[in-house]
């Protein structure tokens, strides 16, 4: 029987740690680096699966905790899994519910057994153990499932960080033992350890001893400085295998994606593109357009002249200005564009790596993103670490 996840690196940047690969999953192939839109409850807010297919979206993400609460495990079991339930025949990834330890901390208590939640839906008590997390994910049927990890706020210091790191390793072993669909689904361990380089290294080295098909880097984008952020990402990719995909959880700002691809990351997810759409904001290479602003009232251009999404081909900035945040359809139209923007960015990154022109791409991108010429120091430092200089003609350090 074929392996449910194979990963092949097909191109590598000769300067940085960026690479292009193909991840073959049960439901579809996924080109990496890839951005995965987030459909928490089995739906991207305002975007139908058919529209995602038109955008050539190959994989989306669902949330185990929320899906376990609603519609619930029995409904998903009767439906035959989330693919059938939501009408999506391409790849799915589910997170484990561990992040809710931070986002819903006031509702949760954590011990060795698992996480005791008070449901935000009906205030009932719910125990999420590593075993139960995997049980739910086995029923959901996602191609890639995540271990339950012990997540602490990024800025936490002291013994709690080390405790969470070691517990994450122990919980991984419980997840692997519980996993009943190894021939169809692949578990990714999650590297934890806060901002402590020694703990991150120890965790990565320990997790790579397990027979798994890919790895995730968790516990970032939670309030740490950008300098701490990129250094932690870079350290983790240094210790994770080159022949398996590396997934950085919860990262979606365009500049962050470009930098982290340079640092060796293959997979990303974030609610940002659809969430910012709900506030009337459209993503462009220069940053964001807040279409609620009066200056767009008579602007008859599309959001982006180069974008081929249905929103840009059909509607003007003026039209979107007049309905943004007032009409429900505006969320849908802007979400389609913002997801298209993220997917096109990743496609352009892949093509530049294949052509071995990634440093040139990065230099051009940063010039667009920071039109005032003031690139944040953390970006300059991160790129310099992997051989890119934004001041050199070809983008490569001399």
Summarize it.
With 398 residues, the protein is an alpha/beta fold. It has 15 helices and 17 strands. It has a five-stranded parallel β-sheet.
Describe the structure.
With about 400 residues, the chain is α/β, with parallel strands linked by helices. Helix content is about 40%, strand content about 20%. A 5-stranded parallel β-sheet has the order 4-15-14-13-12. A hairpin with a 6-residue loop joins strand 1 and strand 2.
Count, helices: 15
Q: By helix and strand content, what is the structural category?
A: alpha/beta
Fraction in beta strands? 15-25%
What kind of sheet is the major sheet?
A: 5 strands, parallel
- The average pLDDT score comes to 94
Name the features.
398 residues; alpha/beta; five-stranded parallel sheet; four-stranded parallel sheet; 15 helices; 41% helix; globular
Write the layout of secondary structure elements.
Layout: E1 5-12, E2 19-25, E3 29-32, E4 34-37, H1 49-54, E5 59-63, H2 64-79, H3 82-86, E6 91-95, H4 100-103, E7 108-110, E8 115-118, E9 125-128, H5 130-140, E10 144-146, H6 159-178, E11 186-188, E12 190-191, H7 197-207, E13 215-217, H8 226-239, E14 246-248, H9 254-262, E15 267-270, H10 272-277, E16 281-284, E17 287-290, H11 310-314, H12 317-323, H13 328-354, H14 358-369, H15 377-385
Parallel strand pairs: 4-15, 5-6, 6-10, 10-11, 12-13, 13-14, 14-15
Antiparallel strand pairs: 1-2, 2-3, 7-8, 8-9, 16-17
